[in-house]
Task: structure prediction
Amino acid sequence: MESKAIVVDPKDNEATCKRGARAGQNVSCLGICEQIVNCVQDIPPYHKIALHAISKGDPVYKYGEVIGLATEDIRQGAWVSDANIRGASRNYETELL
Result:
């Protein structure tokens, strides 16, 4: 059975699984981009799946915004969570200029 995930912005390198997914299951990513990703580990409902490999130190994008930096290499189809990303500091003053 195929699970579904939502991609909101073209910059996103993750998608949010609607019902979760099991390892080995295909996840159909819908929205701004459409692709099928093979899930490599169990992902709970409403959690994130990597659309492609994300290298350690690379930004993780959700809704077109950086939500953190990868603390380790994240495989395509892996669970993206607070276990493998950390918050990225932002300089809101310079962003407004």
About this structure: The CA atoms of residues 60 and 67 lie 6 Å apart. The radius of gyration is 13 Å. Residues 92-96 form the longest helix (5 residues).
